[in-house]
Design brief:
Strand 1 (57-58) and strand 2 (61-62) form a beta hairpin. The protein has a two-stranded antiparallel sheet. By secondary structure, the chain is mostly helical. The protein contains six helices and two strands; from the N terminus they run ααββαααα. The protein has helices at residues 2-27, 35-50, 64-83, 90-125, 132-153, 160-191; strands spanning 57-58, 61-62.
Length: 195
C-alpha cells in the first residue's frame, strides 16, 4: 500500500508540472497550437476548467489556475504523508487547507503588489499618457484601488498617485506582515485540536 501512495504522489506531482507548463504556454502567443501545447491542453484543460470560478477572476486576470495547482499540491502532500505512514487527523487537514488558502492569497497579493508598483512608476514617469495597455490595466485595478482608498479616506476623494501608494503599501503589509501573523495564529490553533 505504501508503494501505491508513493506512485500516486509522484503522479500528482508530475500532473502538477504538466498543468503549470500548460498555464505558461497560454501566455505565449502560438504556443498552444504546437503539438506539445495541444497535448497539454487535452490532458490538463478539463481539470483546469473545473476550477474556473468567478471569484478568482479580476477583469481580464484569471487566478483560478492557482487554485487548481494548490489542490494538486495538497493531494500530492496527502499521498506522500500516507506513503510515510503518517496519520492524517482533522487538525492536519485543516492546517493544510489554511496553508493552501494562504499560498493562493499570497501569490495573488504578490502579483497585485508588483502590478501596483509598476503602475505607480509608470504613472510617476508620465509614460502612460496615450497607452491603451495602461488604460486596460486601470480598468482592472481602479475598482480595487478606489475601494481601498475609500475605506481609509472616509469617502473623500484622493489623488490617483496617493491611491496607488496606499494600495501598494497595504498590499505589501497584508502579504508580508498581517497575513503571516494570522496564518501562524490559525496554525497554532490547529495544533491544539485533539483529533
Amino acid at each position: 500500500m505504501i508503494y501505491a501512495f508513493r506512485i500516486l504522489a509522484a503522479a500528482f506531482s508530475i500532473y502538477s508540472l504538466m498543468c503549470a507548463a500548460r498555464i505558461v504556454l497560454t501566455w505565449i502567443p502560438g504556443a498552444s497550437v504546437s503539438a506539445a501545447g495541444r497535448f497539454l491542453a487535452a490532458v490538463c484543460d478539463p481539470f483546469l476548467n473545473f476550477f474556473r470560478v468567478g471569484w478568482l477572476r479580476f477583469g481580464a486576470l484569471d487566478f483560478s489556475p492557482l487554485l487548481a495547482l494548490a489542490v494538486l499540491s495538497m493531494v500530492s502532500y496527502v499521498m506522500q504523508a500516507l506513503a510515510l505512514g503518517e496519520r492524517l487527523s482533522a487538525a492536519v487537514v485543516l492546517a493544510l487547507l489554511i496553508q493552501v488558502a494562504w499560498q493562493i492569497a499570497g501569490a495573488i497579493l504578490i502579483f497585485l503588489a508588483a502590478v501596483l508598483a509598476v503602475r505607480l512608476v509608470v504613472f510617476l514617469t508620465g509614460a502612460d499618457r496615450s497607452s491603451s495597455l495602461w488604460a486596460q490595466i486601470d480598468v482592472t485595478l481602479n475598482p480595487l484601488v478606489y475601494s481601498i482608498t475609500k475605506f481609509f479616506s472616509g469617502g473623500r476623494p484622493v489623488a490617483y498617485k496617493n491611491a496607488l501608494i496606499l494600495s501598494l503599501v497595504l498590499t505589501v503589509l497584508l502579504r508580508f506582515v498581517v497575513g503571516p501573523l494570522l496564518v501562524g495564529c490559525f496554525l497554532r490553533l490547529c495544533a491544539l485540536i485533539p483529533f
